[in-house]
Structure prediction request, 619 residues.
Amino acid sequence: MNGAKILVAEDDPVFRRVIVFTLERHGFVVAAANNGMIAWELAQAHDFDGLVTDHQMPGLTGIELLERLRSTSKFTDKPIVLCTAKGLELDTSFLIERYGLASVLHKPFSPQRLASLLLEQTTPAGAAQ
Amino acid sequence: MHLGLVFLVLIVLTIGLSRWHSLAGGSVGASGQSIPWVIVLVALLCGGGFCLHAVHIPGRIAEELQRVGGDARRSRELRPMVGRGGIVEVWNTLIEQAQPNNSAPPGNNVASTVDMQVALMARAMRSVSAGIAVTDERFCIQAANGPLAALFNIEATQLLRDRNILEVLSELTVTSPNPKESIAAIERLAGGGRAITVRMVCGASSVVASAAAAPDSAGPCETVLRISRTRLTGRDSDEPGYAWLLQDITQQSLAAEARDKFLQTATHELRTPLANLRAYAEALSIESGVSLEEQKEFCNIITDETLRLSRLVDHLLTVGQMEAGSLVIQQHSLDPARILEEAIENTRPQIIAAGLTLDTDISPKLRKIRGDKDKLQAVLVNLIGNAGKYTLAGGSVRISASLRGESLEVKVADTGIGIGPEDIGKVFDKFYRVQNDAVQNQTGNGLGLAFAREVARLHHGDIVLESQLGEGSVFTLTLPAPDEPTVSQC
Prediction:
């Protein structure tokens, strides 16, 4: 099992449930937050190996959360995946470059793909199980 | 002129000839021989005078025509002639017809029609809501209408004369929300651009009000301006220039912004249930060893999300019709008690499942109303459903209906989480959803109340909300129920 700790920030309860379900089945230890503010508080209080965040959330949006996290030492080099219900109007390459994102996934996306992406990112090179 | 010179030369020659003849012929009988010469001289003088008089009038006409250079539009500079004769009369009549300022002879009203049209056009220029200006080729204002001066916050159009229109526009950008962008747009116009849209702080576009009269109503406000210029057409000899049109398109631009926002939110709302459908279907098909309980839960979620999606599609269609003003309301005679009962029966299972008690108090004396049964029922289901969604287990939902004057009043009251004062005005906005952690698991698309209020208003009624955070909400739907004994069919 992977055992990496992942923080999931997603305001839609139904979608949050299936993301947590899929990641847990891939061996991740998952903590979930229903808005950006709670995610920010959790990220400060605990250590995580990666973050999956929604783009549009109440309280603190995904981008605002990224701004905060990338300016803290704890999260500077951790893999982050941004999930969005926005379409082509989003400048994906700009976001990936600016926040050093592992990927931007457009809804509806495959949770399996998210899980394998995180597996790749959190498994140290040469130590694949 | 030339003719006069010719006659002068002839007279001098004749006199000279007569002198030479008298000298050559000696002095004898000089007086007798000089008589024919005198007669010739007099005849020449008379002929000369007559000829000069005859060419005088055509000469004046030729001079006048040369002065105005044959340009029809300079005809008002032509001068009438004093004198008699057919040519003078014809000339004076022609001038009267060509000059609009002169009163035309009766029966010929060409000049007065032109005059009237010019006056009407001038009135139209003052009345239109767009700023209009004419500049020369270097963009210096030659003429402008009142609304343009008002847009520029300048009291009189004369003050704009000979000022560069682009400079006046640039001065306005100082207070604009994004001066750099506005300046760049104005430079595009100077460069060769035909039309730009620019956001700036302008004066009131409709009325030129004195500052003392109504300082608030006519004060400067942020305006979206569409500025376009067109080259003036005309003959080659005309001064080149441009006609400028400045239109206040603030309202259109706000409507476009609202539409874009609506579309963005709508696509977001559509992708969310789609993402859930895909994710749960994938979880069911790929993951192995999913417990039977979880399988059932996931299947239920898929069903719920499909319903959520189809409800959203229905609502989007309705909202689209609302936006376009094409939502059709049927006009049938309806029994409100029956509609209420059906709506309550539809929502009762949801209320019971949420652990709430449901009370109803429907007056038996309700009058019939005119309206659209399906849409009114959808409104009631929506209001009762909301009460069920946002009330925690153990609470209650109470539905009452009574006659108040000429109106039917339906109240849906709950003991739920309530709505804060800052949200009361917004809950009827499309896609607006109150953020409250107590019910963050409730799904919704933020369209139900927008639809409900629109339907109520199309029935000439309304929906109002009274609520206190933590204590509950009361939605009151009022519909006109006039006392009409003739309405009998259902």
